[in-house]
Amino acid sequence: MNRRDLMKGVATSVAAAAFLPAVAARAQTIAKPAIVMANASARTKIDLSGEWHVSIDPYRAGLVDAVGDPSKPRHWRYADVNVQEAEVKNPGTFFEQDMRRSGTVTLPGSWNAQKPEWRYYDGLMWYQRVLEAKPEAGRRAFLYFEASNYTTHVYLNGKKLGVHVGGFTPFAFEVTDVLRDGENRVTLGVDSEHDANAVPPVITDWDIYGGVTRPIRFLTTPLTYIDDAFVRLGRDGIIRASVALNGASAAGQKVVLTIKGQKALAATTDANGKAELSVKAPKSLKLWTPETPTLHEVRIEAAGDVFTDRIGFRTVEVKGEDILLNGKPIFLRGISHHEEEIGTNPARVITEDAARKLLTEIKTGLNGNYVRLSHYPHSEVTVRLCDEMGLLVWSEIPVYWAVNFGNPDTLKIAQTMLTENILRDRNRASVIIWSIANETPQTEVRNQFLRTLAQTARDLDETRLVSAALLVERKIVDGHIDMHIDDPLIPALDIMSVNTYNGWYGDDKLEALPATVWRADVKRPLILSEFGADSKAGFHDPQLKRKYSEEYQADYYRNTLAMADKIPYLRGLSPWILKDFQAPRRQHPIYQQGWNRKGVISETGERKLAFNVLSDFYKSKMN
Ligand code: GCB
């Protein structure tokens, strides 16, 4: 398939011109979420991982009745009612659900892996469990969700706390006033449906993984607490901390910041509860690098609350065609990675152990220093491990393929996701690139949409680079393959990144790839953000080297890497992809069976021939 063809007809149907001012107006109104709860896991009082009652609701009866009327109480999974007792008390009453007597599943974990018939279920699922808690005088209480996919309705003791849209970023609701002493009931309605305005849109090349995919925590804080803290090293050699308090006494509070081994800094919060602190980085400060990923103990005290984290200091910038880390040019030896654990029936449950296994294959197995966490924000545990292990990170939001660029509400969803992602991860030294999109059509509404996102990223974080994985047109010029990078979005980006599949999609011979000519209109460092070919682990075909054989994939890598090596402004690679992953669009009965087979390891972790080709190439790039 020609990559351009994929995008034909995708250009938005909404009247674009009328729409642009609305897009711009919307950009002004995006706000930080009411609760950030930076480094939330450090505040965990009760981890709500474990058994939850579950009830499937494909027609959404618990939310809306037939013909759109309000739903009937007998369907309300969230009602604060003991159904069994109510049935005895009033024999005339009836219910069409009872969460307490429904079966259970273990959360976190997408429903896809919980029952074979749920593998491709796309709809509403209800969850409920008991939270034993006690309201505490002088403390606030919250429910914090690391991620739940896609629309999550949250209730406590029959009261609706709110709704969150988006599958990969954290959110929280305050429950101080709803919490009761003893048994509390948390009920969640998680709807995986993506409509045409969703981010990502309906069609992707990965599995939906509906449900609660990351931990849920019950947290408590003092009445005024440190909600957000962004601690970073600027390109000017200054360490800065932006601190935000949340609570009635947020204004006029003393804030004290200590980086272990350094002198403490102090400031006072303004009328909005915010404080800015800064100090020139001492010469002795150990910088974070992939080779020596030093993390410093950071402690912030204010209003009787304490925030702690382990934070690395480093700078990243672009100069001409170079990416500089701590002022020195760097080549990104990476690979793309979907969030999916090794195994034959993955549930997208990323434990520290599961993440470590996968990242070790990149760091040690492939001699990598970089990972593209595609196509959406991955688990916090993964990003924290990258900090610890020394892997640079490309972080992405799922503005993918046919997003409805003409719709201001879609932009708002994307901006909110980007904001939640940046607020969660901007203390992670490993993260160097915010990616705002993948393979999007070159239309004016798309350009506006993505420029707005680029600005959102820069407003929230002045220390990192902005990029997007772009499409590029392939032509034949004078007998060679010609790739001309001319996307009008590039001036808004720090790095131009391009996905290219010549030799897999299309008819190009592998031997023709090394002679490919790459041309770019704008001077920027280039990352080949994707290239790849399917192979089924164990299918060997040394003679014919048919597609899907390990030999074809290995040859594809050899030739594509030979091509890449000739691009003078190439500064990084993240081939597609580390591991074979679930992809409902991929149904070749012999080779794919529901998996995208472009992994250099199989779904069970078996290394394919291409793994060694890439690993050797990266070895040759290590200084
Ligand atoms: C792409 C997409 C990625 C797909 C891949 C493929 O360009 O960005 O999500 O999975 O191609 O395998 O075709």
Automatic annotation (TrEMBL):
PROSITE patterns, sorted: GLYCOSYL_HYDROL_F2_2, TAT
Q: What is its EC number?
A: 3.2.1.31
GO MF terms, alphabetically ordered: hydrolase activity
Give every Glycoside hydrolase family 2 catalytic domain span: 316-559
Q: Mind listing the UniProt keywords for this protein, alphabetically?
A: Glycosidase, Hydrolase, Signal
Where do the Glycoside hydrolase family 2 immunoglobulin-like beta-sandwich domain residues begin and end? Answer: 224-314
Residue spans making up a coiled coil are: none
User: Can you say what this protein is called?
Assistant: Beta-glucuronidase
Source species, please?
Answer: Asticcacaulis machinosus
